[in-house]
Write a structure and sequence with these properties.
CATH superfamily of the largest domain: HUPs
Shape: globular
Largest sheet: 6 strands, mixed
Low-confidence stretches: 294-298
Mean pLDDT: 87
CATH class of the largest domain: Alpha Beta
Distance between the termini: 48 Å
Structural class: alpha/beta
Oligomer: single chain
Strand order of the largest sheet: 3-2-1-4-6-5
Strand content: 5-15%
Number of helices: 10
Amino acid sequence: MNAMTQTELHTLSNSHLDALEEETIFILREVAAAFERPTLLFSGGKDSLVMLKCAEKAFGAGRLPYPLLMIDTGHNFKEVTDFRDFRAQELGAELIVRSVEDSMQRGTVRLAHPGESRNVHQSVTLLEAIEEFRFDALIGGARRDEEKARAKERIFSHRDSFGQWQPKAQRPELWTLFNTKIHPGEHFRVFPISNWTELDVWQYIARENIALPSIYYTHKREVVDRRGLLVPVTELTPPKDGEQAVLRDVRFRTVGDITCTCPVESDAATPEQIVIETLAAEVSERGATRMDDKTSDASMEKRKKDGYF
């Protein structure tokens, strides 16, 4: 009876993942058909790697119909950017990288102080890249379960000619029909895995045997406990006065700019072990790991209205 129950649960899980994968593949193909100059945002993180896997299934390995785009703050984890480059080269995909540092040199990004996080300033560099390449659709790996503002997004999310998002002006998406009409200078942000959860992502990674950057799995790292977050000790994030660095077994649930991304304590070394941890998690991955989401002044909704992805 137990064996039958486990088999039924496995079948149900696969059926659920099959439905999510099918929806994602449909959306990726819809973008290729509806837009002239789309691009797939690719950071080397787990969500973008899941999307890339679905894109391979949608179009065939080495046959992606749009380039990959990365907005680099210059403060990303090396394990992730190295893996990004490796995966793009492995696929034979065109990888476009634009840097916040270049925007700083042009004077379009100005930091309040040298230690300020560059994460929020990615919006400027992203909009500059959109203008440079005249992208009319940007495919991203945001999910509705991550954060309240992202839960408001449509799958095809319209942006005006200033790259801004108007939550109250979202277009209806009934019966999987998408209104992709835009005026010159406007574009869409498209979220093919909107309906996935963190658990779905890890189950899919396990099922498809998707390779990830090593920092997603347990490893030893020096951290300091700061207001309930484990802040990694780096040149960019040294301990503050009175803080003591300790060596712990940690992994990253999400990856981003070093200055605002924290690991969680974990000894999970495989996707299957992470699935078990995720089932027991009581805090969302961004809530548990992102310092920049802790302050209302830098709320995700405000950033998205200003052009943040």
